[in-house]
């Protein structure tokens, strides 16, 4: 049976993506994410069948939310200590609407028959993936940007993407957009 890798996200506007792309410190072993791939994931669903995909689209389309502003600030890493795998930028303390929206996406997925992701949710935008990055240079970059404020943007839609893994990196194709009401 064919399955899809799907995710629901908030996409920052081009102006914010440019600021984030321009942060790239060009450190060997740190692969910066392309601007058009930067997003804040509300839900990741790695193994979705065709019938569940249709049910998920229907449930997501029914989500109602008001537009809100989201700050983009504070660079961190996964894992938070030790050998860095991911560099991300956070959403400060976020916004209550962001957490409500995440819950609604998870509820929609559950109602569509998608298995729940039980890991704690840490809202962020992935900036880079690291493999054997030079520790000293990387630590200096992280320390100097720990309190970075990249501004804020208006969240006025969520998007369902299909993510196809290729040797050149993932290709994200938008399947559905749900505007704020």
What is the gist of this entry?
By secondary structure, the chain is α+β, with helices and mostly antiparallel strands. The chain has helices at 14-21, 50-61, 96-112, 135-145, and strands at 3-10, 30-32, 40-49, 68-78, 86-90, 124-130, 149-155, 157-164, 171-179.
How large is the count of helical segments?
4
**Structural class estimated from helices and strands:** alpha+beta
The biggest beta sheet is recorded as: 5 strands, antiparallel
**Average pLDDT reading:** 94
CATH class category name: Alpha Beta
Q: What spatial form do the alpha-carbon principal axes imply?
A: globular
- According to CATH, the fold-level topology is Cyclic Phosphodiesterase, Chain: A
> Do you know the CATH architecture?
Alpha-Beta Complex
Main-sheet strand order equals 2-6-5-4-7
Taking the alpha carbons of the first and last residues, their distance comes to: 36 Å
Rg, rounded, reads 17 Å
Unreliable runs: none
* Beta-strand content: 35-45%
Describe the 3D structure.
Helix 2 (50-61) packs antiparallel against helix 3. It is globular, with a radius of gyration of 17 Å. A hairpin with a 7-residue loop joins strand 4 and strand 5. Strands 2-6-5-4-7 form a 5-stranded antiparallel sheet, with helices on one face. Helix content is 27%, strand content 38%. With 181 residues, it is an alpha+beta fold.
List keywords for this structure.
181 residues, alpha+beta, Cyclic Phosphodiesterase, Chain: A, 4-stranded antiparallel sheet, 4 helices, 9 strands, 38% strand
């Amino acid at each position: 049976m064919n399955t899809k890798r799907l995710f629901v996200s908030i996409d920052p506007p081009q102006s914010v993506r440019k600021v984030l792309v321009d942060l790239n410190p060009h450190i060997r072993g740190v692969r910066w994410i392309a601007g058009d791939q930067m997003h804040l994931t509300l839900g990741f669903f790695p193994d979705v069948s065709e019938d569940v995909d249709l049910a998920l689209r229907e449930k997501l389309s029914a989500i109602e939310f008001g537009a809100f502003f989201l700050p983009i600030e504070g660079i961190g890493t996964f894992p938070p200590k030790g050998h860095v795998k991911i560099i991300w930028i956070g959403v400060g303390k976020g916004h209550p609407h962001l957490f409500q929206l995440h819950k609604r996406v998870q509820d929609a997925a559950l109602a569509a028959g998608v298995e729940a992701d039980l890991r704690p949710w840490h809202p962020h935008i992935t900036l880079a993936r690291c493999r054997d990055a030079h520790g000293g240079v990387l630590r200096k970059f992280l320390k100097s940007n720990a309190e970075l404020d990249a501004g804020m943007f208006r969240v006025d839609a969520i998007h369902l993407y299909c993510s196809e893994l290729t040797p050149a990196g993932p290709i994200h194709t938008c399947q559905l957009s749900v505007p704020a009401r």
